[in-house]
Amino acid sequence: MLWVMQFSGFFSAAMLMIVLSPSFQSFPPAEAIRSSHLHAYLRLSSYQVSSSPYSPLDRFSFRKASEFGNADKCRSTDHKITGVCDPSLVHVAITLDVEYLRGSIAAVHSILQHSLCPENVFFHFLVSDTDLETLVRSTFPQLKFKAYYFDPAIVRNLISSSVRQALEQPLNYARNYLADLLEPCVRRVIYLDSDLVVVDDIAKLWSTNLGSRTIGAPEYCHANFTKYFTSGFWSAERFSGTFKGRKPCYFNTGVMVIDLVKWRRVGYTKRIERWMEIQKTDRIYELGSLPPFLLVFAGRVAPIEHRWNQHGLGGDNVRGSCRGLHPGPVSLLHWSGSGKPWDRLDSRRPCPLDALWAPYDLYRHSH
Ligand SMILES: *[C@@H]1O[C@H](CO)[C@@H](O)[C@H](O)[C@H]1NC(C)=O
User: Mind listing the domains of the chain with CATH numbers?
Assistant: First the structure.
């Protein structure tokens, strides 16, 4: 668990402390992290470097992650988990895209590091390239996972050209199809973006009460909701009328807890696709995969504590800006925005908080 206390003034002093939990055993102590005046002072462990340099993808080589195991308290020690339908599993879905692969691997690594019961976590990887499965296996030999090939043809006809090319990668839309892709026995899933790390036990997020809602996510009701849609959208009652009777708030689709049973029953995939169809003819928004989610779910989201999505850490690469954390506890750090920590670390111009991503990086530089 990570706590942030922000004191007075302009980014002036933020102090981070990782409170060691029993699940943190594979990490030596000395996780006292202090960041002040935008300089981070970090003492972080070095990893054991594996000696098997096997990689199916030429561009990538990852170190083998250290082994992980359940703490005594984990319920599954009573029985052996037999398959993806086991009710004691925590299901996590992440995309594995060549572009963001290093981030996805770090995200998985962070989840395992902070879980009291890492053997109870089952990963569902949405992949664009089937070779990635071999890479995952060699990096996390004991991992429970399944890879699902996401056919870009599913969305190609639904994607309109957008200002930001990166937002138009077909895999960005894979989250729309989780209810169809995953096994019917999987009743709930946590969807996570590839540019984040989890610094708390994912089981806590898993046990979120969604009430009558289909999805849960941290909401940001102070954000200007208007700007996510075009003026054409707001002036056309047949479009903007969809928000009638709702109090829509922005939420980030990079961290969502989804009730797949309700999703399948209502058929939300079709509702999202219907808005994507409209976008092809009537440009109702600018961004990619987010607005259809807002259209269908904004104002109908089970609110999750903001600690589970400290977003925006990517900042703006063009202006080279770095973002700080919002005050309050932190359970998940999300580098949304155009800058990514691995790029900035490689270019030796990191933002201070990128140092919080680095310990989860398993990428092996070739030189
Ligand atoms: C919200 O954004 C819209 C569109 O960008 C703008 O016209 C409006 O003034 C903004 N509202 C506030 C309260 O900032």
Answer: 84-308 (3.90.550.10)
**How confident is the model at residue 149, as a pLDDT?**
92
pLDDT score for 317: 61
Low-confidence ranges of the chain (pLDDT < 70): 1-59, 75-78, 160-168, 317-320, 367
CA of 226 to the centre of ligand 1 (A): 6
Does the CB atom of residue 209 touch ligand 1 within 6 A? no
| Ligand 1: centre distance to CA 227 (Å) | 7
3-state secondary structure the chain: CEEEEECCCCCCEEEEEECCCHHHHHCCCCCEEEEECCEEECCCCCCCCCCCCCCCCCCCCECCCCCCCCCCCCHHHHCCCCCCCCCCCEEEEEEECHHHHHHHHHHHHHHHHHCCCHHHEEEEEEECCCCHHHHHHHHCCCCEEEEEECCCHHHHCCCCCCCCHHHHCHHHHHHHHHHHHCCCCCCEEEEECCCEEECCCHHHHHCCCCCCCCEEECEECCCCHHHHCCHHHHHCHHHHHHHCCCCCCEECCCEEEEEHHHHHHHCHHHHHHHHHHHHHHHCCCCCCCHHHHHHHHCCCCEECCHHHCECCCCEECCCCECCCCCCEEECEEECCECCCHHHHHHCCCCCHHHHHCHHHCCECCCC
Predicted local distance difference test score (pLDDT) of residue 75: 67
Q: How remote is the CA of residue 272 from the centroid of ligand 1, in Å? A: 25
226 Cβ closer than 6 Å to some ligand 1 atom: yes
pLDDT digits (tens, 9 = 90+) for 253-278: 999 999 999 999 999 999 999 999 99
| Ligand 1 atom with least separation from CA of 224 | 1
Ligand 1 near 212 CB (within 6 A): no
pLDDT for 313 equals 95
Query: In the prediction, which pLDDT does 51 show?
Result: 34
